[in-house]
Design a protein that fits this description.
Elements lengths: L4 E5 L4 H12 L4 E5 L4 H11 L7 E5 L8 H4 L2 E6 L14 H19 L6 E7 L22 H17 L5 E6 L2 E2 L8 H9 L5 E4 L5 E2 L2 E2 H13 L6 E5 L5 E2 H12 L5 E4 L14 H7 L7 H11 L11
Parallel strand pairs: 1-2, 1-4, 2-3, 4-5, 5-6, 6-11, 7-10, 8-13
Antiparallel strand pairs: 9-12
Helix pairs in contact: 1-2, 1-7, 4-5, 6-8, 8-10
The protein binds nicotinamide-adenine-dinucleotide (NAD).
């Protein structure tokens, strides 16, 4: 049987372009839909156009908050919905409107459209930000969402929408991504900012005491989890963590990055920010059970690869 076309929303973004790259390499036909209104996303589209299997790629530039979605779904067998407005800090104040539009409204429109265009699976990006943190240990999916940022509220709503449309037969799966890093990372994210600081950009803004811990998860591991979620037999409405299960402090990541670069990351202290949990920590047992998934990229190797991509790796023993 022919592999069905995978409609990948947000396919020009950090995670999306990595997922598209992997699907094409696997021989999967991809219909990428992205607003691509920034140079970063336009560069991703140029890179993907040069993919060895670009013959399998179709690209539509559209705003999913307003576009007619029915034509996008006519030949899609699987939907991977990664389009969204990420970033916790930008969601406070006036930024909330964009988050509601690109996370909540877009997801609802897409799920509504799938009611008339039956697909085998709709994989949707959720976030560890639906949780308030993990003060007492790893957090499993049975834990009631209790976000501490407006961004987290939009993603908790996205999960609710997935459950609501699952009750009408849409085969949704919401994946909670935990702090994703790796090549092509968004420039507003921590490791990308460390690399920019090493490359002559602004010093890294170290929030608070720097001992806050994150469950850093490599984008290749996230991609493997997304692909597994498109293939496995899963109950509609399933929610699943995708995290390394290994929280590491920001200070330790700064230290490791400096060690790999052969010089310390320039840092400037800034005040702690609201919505920044003290620790995130994924319980990954459900991902192992349902997706056969386990994180494979160790933090040091993943950081070395990201530094290598930016031309900043000095220790040859860490080169991939
Ligand atoms: P990104 O900003 O690099 O990618 C998002 C993409 O979605 C962009 O290319 C953007 O143009 C597109 N997009 C946004 N709104 C759109 C709209 N209305 N119409 C069409 N395209 C639109 O972000 P990312 O880090 O790759 O995140 C991808 C998804 O994963 C997001 O839903 C995000 O909330 C979620 N997520 C990311 C992380 C992380 O650590 N990066 C963690 C948890 C969840």
């Amino acid at each position: 049987m022919d592999t069905p076309t995978h409609l990948v929303t947000g396919g020009a973004g950090f995670i999306g372009r990595t997922v598209v790259d992997r699907l094409l390499a696997d021989g999967t036909p991809v219909h990428l839909v992205d607003r691509a209104d920034q140079p970063r996303m336009q560069a991703a589209l140029r890179d993907l156009a040069a993919h060895p299997r670009a013959d399998l790629l179709r690209v539509t530039r559209a705003d999913l908050a307003t576009a007619d979605l029915a034509p996008l779904l006519t030949d899609a067998g699987v939907v991977v919905h990664l389009a969204g407005q990420p970033g916790v800090q930008a969601s406070w104040g006036d930024g909330f409107g964009d988050h509601v539009r690109d996370n909540v409204l877009v997801t609802q429109r897409l799920l509504e459209a799938t009611l008339d265009a039956p697909v085998d699976r709709v994989v949707v990006a959720s976030s560890s930000s639906v949780l308030r943190g993990a003060p007492d240990g790893p957090v499993d999916e049975a834990t009631t969402p209790s976000p501490v940022s407006p961004y987290g509220v939009t993603k908790a709503t996205v999960e609710q929408l997935c459950a609501t449309y699952a009750s009408r037969g849409v085969p949704t799966v919401a994946l909670r991504f935990f702090t994703v890093y790796g090549r092509h990372q968004r420039p507003d994210m921590a490791v990308a900012r460390m690399l920019a600081a090493l490359d002559g950009g602004p010093a890294f803004p170290l929030r608070g005491d720097g001992w806050q811990e994150r469950d850093w998860t490599h984008v290749d591991d996230i991609t493997a989890g997304v692909v597994a979620a498109t293939r496995r037999d899963l109950a509609p409405g399933t929610v699943c963590n995708l995290g390394s299960g290994n929280p590491v402090s920001l200070r330790e990541v700064l230290r490791l990055t400096g060690e790999l670069a052969g010089r310390p990351v320039p840092v400037r202290p800034v005040a702690p920010v609201p919505g920044d949990p003290a620790r995130t920590w994924a319980d990954t047992r459900r991902a192992a059970d349902l997706l056969g998934w386990e994180p494979l990229v160790p933090l040091r190797a993943g950081l070395a690869d990201q530094l290598h991509g930016a031309g900043l790796l000095t220790t040859t023993s860490d080169a991939a």
